[in-house]
Amino acid sequence: MSSHEQIRIVFGESGIRGYSPPKASGNEGADSRRPLCSDKLLSHGKKWKLEVRLSPTVHTRSSILEPVDLPPPFRLVRLRERRDAFAHAIDIAEKSGAGTLTYVGRFDLAEFAVVLEPAEPLCTARRAFYAAMVALTDALRAYAPPNKQVAIDWPDAVRVDGGLVGGGQLGWPSSAKEDEPPRWLVFGAMIRTVAMTEAEAGVHPLASALDQEGFGEAGAVQITESFARHLMLATETWHVDGFDAVAREFLSLLTDEPQTSRAIADNGDLLVRRVGVDATERHDLRKYLRSSSWLDPKLGGPRL
Q: Could you say which DSSP state residue 160 is in?
């Protein structure tokens, strides 16, 4: 695949679909929207080998100038340290299209966002958030020390051995209708790679960072690259085995809650049944995604 070709990632009932835009003509936003195939991510008739380089690559701690090596079909948009990857991805989503990945080069945070183009109504397309969260946790698990637990507080917070390190968020057009496919979705993530505070140990017992958890030299670049590869794997799982396979993987990553069983409804809501209780609790995904449980707006990063 040449550097001038792109493929669009589209979440739909069958998982992902590929599109090939016309040859470059000076208009970056042009797109023929002609399907290469109705249900596969392809290039010149060949499916990408998703298993390639899923294992972590040894690097030194990321610098803000270190290259970010993304697999096709992702297109990198690199931002200055004070920019907001999630907000910028939302700003450019319609023009730049699916596969655009915005990245902020920061020493203490892995911060990035990716544009998706759903092929199903918004009310069910939000389930793409679960696939992206699976990819995010798998990206961390690829670098985690043995027996180090990486878990999710539903729906959006990521913890390593109980310490909050970050999470994910999802955006969609404010004008989007629930019963129609949105023009785009944006999944954004932040992971605290380095603890920058000089507070004494124990002052923030519920917060952590990758360097404090023994992740070695895994930094922002490595986590971002790993996320991109694992997102391709998660979408392929959705395509081959259906969303239920993604849901099972996500539910297996949730923090333990004794004497409960959990499931994900067709619209992405979390269903919880407790032992000895007849009623089923329903947690509204749309409502919870309106704000991020893990994000501290004043800090501009994960809560302490």
A: E
Nearest to 187 by CA among 169, 166, 167, 165: 169
Least confident interval from 32-46, 70-84, 178-192: 32-46
Q: Looking at the 3D structure of the chain, how many domains does it have?
A: 1
* Domain carrying residue 247: 51-253+288-302
**CATH code (residue 184):** 3.30.930.10
Q: Taking a C-beta distance cutoff of 8 angstroms, is the pair 40, 17 a contact?
A: yes
Task: Give start and end residues of each alpha helix (H) in the chain.
Answer: 85-96, 122-125, 128-141, 220-241, 243-252, 285-289
Quote the CA–CA distance of 8 and 35 in Å, as a whole number: 10
At which residue do the structure tokens 């239920």 appear? 244
User: String of b and e for 209-229 (b: at least 16 CB within 10 Å)?
Assistant: bbbbbebbebbbbbbbbbbbb
The 3-state DSSP composition of the chain as helix, strand, coil percent (nearest 5) reads 25, 25, 50
Give the three-class secondary structure for 119. Answer: coil
Mean residue pLDDT of the chain comes to: 82
Q: What is the pLDDT of residue 179?
A: 97
Instruction: Round to whole Å and give the CA distance between 112 and 2.
Output: 24
Q: Is residue 246 part of a domain?
A: yes
232 falls within a domain: yes
